[in-house]
Amino acid sequence: MNSTIARCLTKAPIGVRSIHGAAKKAVPAPRGDIQDPSAFLTKIGRNSASLADKFKSWEHLFTATPAEMKADMSLSVKQRRWILNWTEKYRQGVDPYVIPTKPIKKKTK
To answer: Domain named Small ribosomal subunit protein mS41 SAM: which ranges (predicted)?
Structure first.
């Protein structure tokens, strides 16, 4: 093994996946008719509007971690993934829209 690489690996703290720190994601400015967490959660659908009171502010909506959503807000896995996916899409410039779910077909015998 190259001695430079070996030195770098030994200096990294245990449990660190990479030498670079995770960059903080930017909080996008509200745009259009979406000006607060309630409007954002209403727009993404899937009963997310009922969770609006759990987010303190616009910044909190975009900076809340999955662990915080689980422990402090008691959101289910589906709710966390849905909100986190949409917050990332919003950062990338995609305006929220409702994606309908397929109805579950009843089994017939």
So the answer is: 37-93
Rounded CA separation 59/36 (Å): 10
pTM of full prediction above 0.70: yes
Q: How many CA atoms, within 13 angstroms, populate the side-chain half-sphere of residue 59?
A: 1
Type of residue at 6: A
Rounded to the nearest angstrom, the gap between the alpha carbon of residue 77 and the centroid of all alpha carbons in its chain is: 11
Q: Measured between alpha carbons, how far is 82 from 36 in angstroms, rounded to an integer? A: 17
Phi and psi for 51 in degrees, rounded to 5?
-100, 5
Torsion of CA 94, 21, 56, 29, to 10 degrees: -40
Distance separating alpha carbons of residues 91 and 99, to the nearest angstrom: 18
What is the DSSP secondary-structure string of 18-36? -SSPPPPPP-PPPBTTB-S
pLDDT digits (tens, 9 = 90+) for 62-101: 999 999 999 999 999 999 999 999 999 999 999 998 788 8
